[in-house]
Fold each of these.
Amino acid sequence: MTQDSDHIDEYGAEMVAFLELIWGKGFLAPGGQQNIRRLTEGIATQDRYLLDIGSGIGGGDIVLARDLGAKVVGIDIESPLVRTAKAYVEETGLTERVTFRHVRAGQLDFPDGIFDIVYSSGAFTQISDKSAMFAECLRVLKPGGVLTTYDWTGTERPYSAKMLEWFRLEGLTYNLRSLATHRQLLLDAGFVDVEMVDDGGWYAAEARRELGLLKGDLGQAARALIGDDTYKHFIADWTAMVDVLEDGELVPGYLRGFKPA
């Protein structure tokens, strides 16, 4: 997986537990099953071979296999997440349709042209060398195969103080580029029929709703799960995220491109 070479695990147990409380068991990216449907809309998935880049703890892959009939390989650079994903899939009885690999930074360890679909939700956001990543996606796709992603993108302006504060609170690596830049990088990599669209403010509204839940109905459960100090940290984190979403500096969007047939 093409990623920065000196990787340090960033998703600790407390963060994982907190995100699952908000987004559901198995999910480290927004939207749950609803967003998976958006990502795969118009794409034939039944019995198609799908690579999920940045599969996290596997919730999305369970939905892709169980509900959409895909045969899934999930890869991630954080071994604790992969262990959890494997355990979740074993619980569902889908081990014949879903497998996971812990991978190192670098090229994708797959032959050319074997996947029908390359899928990712929330992972390319953190990859700095997006050109190399898109080139690898194109390489492992079959002719006519599709890359579909949902990611947080940005603008080409320097980061504001609000955005830098959100990065600090997140404690994650972000390498944001604009939707227009993503589109050009996909074209440069050799993809055709490239589509890109922001999510129309969907997650900005969702994030504000989630913040309200965290301050209200979910507050007691969150405190019990992660402790009062960590809870307060995540409230500040979510508040900062809502600010940059609503200011238009953080831009969630969908990108799709096809390998020439």
Amino acid sequence: MQIRIFDVEHGGCALVSTDNGKHLLIDAGHNSTTGWRPSVYLPQNGIYQLERVIISNMDEDHASDLHNLRQTVSINAIYKNPTVSGEAIRYLKGQNNIGPGIDALADMMNTFRGTAPAAPDLGGITFDFFWNDYPREFDDENNLSMVSILRYPGLNVCFPGDMEVQGWRKLWERQDFRIAMSNVHVLVASHHGRENGCCPELYDYGWKPQVTIISDSGIQYATQETVAWYRARTQGVTLNGKVRRVLTTRRDGRMLITAAPHEAYVEVGL
């Protein structure tokens, strides 16, 4: 199993390749500086079908290439916070603020019919999904992010979208969520490492992921100010002979997590 985390600036895009030859995409952001897009990368690498596309957050930086992606590859199923409809996405964004990626997401919510079975064989990978309800609990896109925990023997990876502290705390009221987070090995930092995604309660019971990954670009939105905060709450992994606790796409570029049952390692700059 492999997880490729791409450098898409202050956005999100990760490709999961399963042991049985299937592929999933977690977010569909692109890099406006380099021109990198998943809609181009996937066909260039012989990938023409995605078992799932998971959109963790309904902001453009997590879906900015979705409108192109659905033209170049076959998508069997699309996942996002199920309490937010296509009409609600348009309402939340407003007609003047919706980008082409989120516009495509809203359209797919109304017209898309996937072909994948409810529980496809993902080569030993399973997912736990958690979200806050719209509009009962929250009415902002960040706290309506869908937290996705990818599980593989010996490796659990959390993709939380842009969840902010208030949303984390609401989820933290659930025992099943607390249990699910307690054995996460790799945390992709919420909201690209911004301070409003740093929730101390997640670490109350001694949980420390082995590595924290921040998807960010140049200095903006105070993301660089939280590296020390995450470093103090992360165990660390040995990478190129050094112990690293926090990795950033800004500094390290693309990342590759390779796992066999009960064994995993990370590479950067690929």
Amino acid sequence: MSESVRSTLERATMMLSAAGIEGAARDAQILLAYVLEVDQAALIAKLDEPLKQSALYGIDRVIAVRSLHQPVSHIIGKRSFWNHDFMVNSDVLDPRADTETLISAALEQPFDNVLDLGTGSGAIVISLLAESPNSMGVATDISPAALDMARRNAGRIGVADRLRFVEANWLSGVSGRFDLIVSNPPYISEAEMENLAPEVRDWEPHLALTPGGDGLEAYRIIAAGLGERLAPNGRAFFEIGYEQANDVCEIFTRAGFTQPKVLKDLEGRDRVVAI
């Protein structure tokens, strides 16, 4: 007898819970909708319908992979951020809702050109350009694989003709001045890496998570060269770890940027340093 959508969801939830997956019911629903190629509202409408054997094979496969703590976004190949779905894989950091604090702040004033340092999936700069149709952008990353993913996202979201990609280590190889500079650099300390959730520690690129040491090296490098790339009256925004505000502000203050501001995310945690 064929299994129904409802019973499959219940079974998948139990399997994920047994594997220690937080939000097991939510993930089971997302993954079954993915296998069936429907949205979650349509899935709920099908709860009492039987599943074909091919669908059962498909859900068993993705549940087995999720049970190994592979992120849902990697399984389905996308992650929602700001107003778009971004393609992601193990070559790039998943865009997080916390980073939308940076997007919101950057969009408070118009800009003609934007530089995104360590672009990863391209989520930040692509979101900004999509909201500012007359602006141009440059995105850098040290990883060719990350740049390839960012290019694909730029093409899908329709900003590729206004965005140039540069394989570079932060500001090296970048010329010109920009009236908006943004970055979500790796900021997790080496000591903190072991305590990360396995979905992050084991599946996301370590290069995008930590620079090693105290986690602050990227800010030191960026601060040292920022003055040469920031236009007069330009603005810069950098995501930070929620306990790093004082240290990061001190780094930029020592580099000559007076009175950096700290912006909080929706949870009330320090999240962005604004220059």
Amino acid sequence: MKITFPHMGTMAIPAKALFEELGFDVILPPPITKKTLDLGVKHSPEFACLPLKMNVGNYIEALELGADTIIMGGGVGPCRFGYYGEVQKEILRDLGYEFEMIIFEPMQGRWKDFYKKVRSLLGKMSLLKLKSAWDKGWAKAKAVDRLDSLINKTRPYLIDPKKGTQIYKEGLSLVDESNDIKNIEKSVDLIEGRLNCLKRKKNFKPLKVGLVGEIYVVLEPFTNLNIEEKLGELGVLVDRSIFLTDWIKEHMALNLFRDLKHNRNVREAAKPYLNHFVGGHGIESVGETVLYSREGYDGVIHLLPFTCMPEIIAQSVLPTISKEKDIPVLSLSVDEHTGDAGFVTRLEAFIDLLARKKEEVVV
């Protein structure tokens, strides 16, 4: 069995560790490029959202490299993510590829179905081996999230932010190569130390911007045109509202390990504006924006794929929050036609607006 799965930010690092520890051959799709996007766009429905198209491109490239089994997440509720697996399966079958697709639906009350899927993949594998693999994968997931948080909190202060980005990428490689959980943690500590040694701007106070939106677009740098890196180089401290480990907790482990207090706070904050589930992370985009306003952030950037229903609902609510809470919000919709130049121009204009607003408050 030669397993593959789609890219989503740094997800490949812990996912590869998990499946290799379980004894599977893992064939990663090549890093996402324009070729990946072009393949997905060519073979996907025109009005499908960008994440689906990117997934299709990933799968085609991985199947061409010899993969025969695709691991895919499922979904519940009105978000189209719940249909991804079946749609992608039909697209790939029509193209003549032979493979098996195993779709893991969120447990959320259907743990028996989830258990059957796990057993179909793992057979009679011992629980001890499964736990060992999970522990390693989970350690790497936490490590890459910690690296993401570290670089976002460090980059705006650096005289040479590109040097910080280079060290961050070296950290990802160290985590990927580490086979021992203690070494994984030591690798992140090492990178944190190296980042702390870089030269910093004196008496610098960065703008603080919260990042909310649909999880794939928020996590995948190719899709969001490296927005966190661009903002950091503009001197902006970015706080991302969702991380890979959040998705894993939500999707794979019921609510047992989630930050239930924060989750309640998000929903309570959203309630005056959006008080029912609309799929995806629509409520979270609304609630997190309210929380960012309470925490004194200078602005919020909302990322969404073109045609994403949950985030379109959130987008319609955000102007009201922006006005009532006095926090600027920029919604950026992305698809295969989104260009870097226009994207950067909008970001720079938004940051200029935040800087002027902050100067007015100080005066």
